[in-house]
Amino acid sequence: MADIAMVFHWTPGDMDTMSLEELTEWRERARLRHEPPKKAPTR
After folding, report:
1. Single pTM value for the model
2. CA 38, CA 2: separation in Å to the nearest integer?
3. pLDDT digits (tens, 9 = 90+) for 4-21
4. 21-33 b/e with 16+ CB inside 10 Å = b?
5. DSSP for 6-20?
6. Mean pLDDT over residues 32-38, rounded?
7. What's the rounded Cα separation, in Å, for the pair 7 and 30?
């Protein structure tokens, strides 16, 4: 939940009614938004 709160600026109350499945989906969205895209190695 901390990842979601940090990326989307949500409070615990904003996430309180979400199911575990929904929190898992939002956590993945937060991870993708926070992590820079990986670049292909250059030669």
Report:
1. 0.75
2. 23
3. 999 999 999 999 999 999
4. eeeeebeeebeee
5. HHH---HHHHTT--H
6. 83
7. 6
- Which residues, 6 or more positions from 22, have their beta carbon under 8 angstroms from its beta carbon? none
Tokens at 7, concatenated: 């990326």
CB 7 within 8 A of CB 30: yes
Rounded distance, CA 42 to CA 26, Å? Answer: 32
CB 4 within 8 A of CB 30: yes
Grouping H, G, I as helix, E, B as strand and the rest as coil, residue 21 is helix
d(CA 42, CA 28): 28
Q: How many CA atoms lie within 13 A of 34 on its CB side?
A: 14
